[in-house]
Amino acid sequence: MQQPLQAQKKLFKETTQQKADRMQWWTNDRFGMFIHWGLYAMPARHEWVRNAERLTDSAYQKYFDYFNPDLYNPKDWAKMAKAAGMKYAVLTAKHHEGFCLFDSKFTEYKSTNTPIKKDLVKEYVDAFRAEGIKVGFYYSLIDWHHPDFTIDRNHSQRVNTPAEYEKLNKGRDMAKYREYLKNQVRELLTNYGKIDILWLDFSYPGQNGKGKDDWGSIELIKMVRQLQPQIIVNDRLDLKEYDDAWDFVTPEQYKVASWPKDEKGNKLYWETCQTFSGSWGYHRDENTWKSTQQLLVLLIESVSKGGNLLLNVGPTARGMFDYRAQNALGSMGEWMKFNAASIYGCTEAPAEYNKIDQTLLTYNPKTKRLYVHLVDYPLSRLVLPGYEGKVKYAQFLHDNSEIKMTASNGHWDNSDYKKGDLTLILPVTKPNVEIP
Ligand code: JFZ
């Protein structure tokens, strides 16, 4: 999806400083909750199930007919997000399947017409705001249900030959779908108060694909910024050549090697989105859940490279977070309770702080504190290369207890140490923050 090098164009008048001000809360908060919820929670085998299994409208209809998330209580979700240390949330108002969790005027394919009969988006917005969590919407550009959305290579009805495409696309009209999409985004950004984030997903230009002309991306982003001037928007509208049509890049399900930059070497705002288990929608039988350690490293490593983590939960068809998600969030919250100061307001450490083996560094530019994350807890001595004279005091975060340090070889046989280094003298056993 890389665009060729070209001069950056602009659509709006915002300055770099004005953008930094608009992005301020987002770069400070670092940690958000992604929520993928829709009819696909019922088959419970991936949010792309309709595509993967080539399910027809009538095969998929039963999920609509029986959709009844009777345990949906977004106040619980918001409390769990907050306890985990998450500061913002992004809910799928509509995913690729086309089903709307909100009461849209422009479709009958919406939650208010299912047995639950509720505007689920409305309740989400109210509940998360009440907990002080910023609210965002994910809205799928792709739509496998809309009759005017042309069949393409990502469609659930995808086919092989040009003739087959032509046959299926007779009578489908992307101009009409474009209007639909714009109308729905307008509804979402008009009927629910101040919206902090918009996550549009996704573009795949090229043969049998779709991009900016199909979505009407320029018109769309203009409308978005007009309706919600402070909103923060992701980068999947296929408008990479415009500097200001998007706010941040979205490396998904992989780790970036270093802070992402544009062609001129400017650092970009970035957020990685990650799943607990691989699938975004609730997947009952998936056995590939990440460990707490892996999840914490995802968060710390993102901040250590100047980015955010949007960590996904796929609620069940009854509207709950299943026990594995609850456990994972709870464990992260335990860690955040003691270590949040090394996340909020933090970023990559300045270059004067050399990398330290088996650790990740985060840094708060305001307080000038450096956080050394002992990802692999070392045995008693940790050499900080070239740190002599740079550290006034060292302590653990969980209890503020002192960590002794010495600007000399901390051990008669410490061959890691060189002049100018600093040695931390750590307890041999990792101090435990948990109640046994
Ligand atoms: C998309 C969705 O298809 C997926 O279901 C989920 O919502 C995720 C957050 O976003 O997945 C993508 C989109 C774009 C790319 C990869 C996965 N991409 O451009 O490489």
From TrEMBL:
* Matches recorded under Gene3D superfamilies: Glycosidases
Stored InterPro entries: FUC_metazoa-typ, GH, Glyco_hydro_29, Glyco_hydro_29_N
* GO biological process entries: fucose metabolic process; glycoside catabolic process
One example of the protein's molecular function in GO is: alpha-L-fucosidase activity
One matching Pfam family: Alpha_L_fucos
Q: Does the keyword Lipid metabolism apply?
A: no
Q: What is its EC number?
A: 3.2.1.51
Where is the site labelled May be important for catalysis? C273
Regions crossing the membrane = none
What keywords appear on the UniProt entry? Glycosidase, Hydrolase, Signal
Glycoside hydrolase family 29 N-terminal domain segment(s): 2-340
Q: Name one GO cellular component term.
A: lysosome
Q: Which PANTHER family match?
A: ALPHA-L-FUCOSIDASE, ALPHA-L-FUCOSIDASE-RELATED
| Main function | Alpha-L-fucosidase is responsible for hydrolyzing the alpha-1,6-linked fucose joined to the reducing-end N-acetylglucosamine of the carbohydrate moieties of glycoproteins.
The Swiss-Prot or TrEMBL record describes its family as follows:
Belongs to the glycosyl hydrolase 29 family.
Its name, as the record gives it, is alpha-L-fucosidase
- Tell me which species this is from: Chitinophaga skermanii
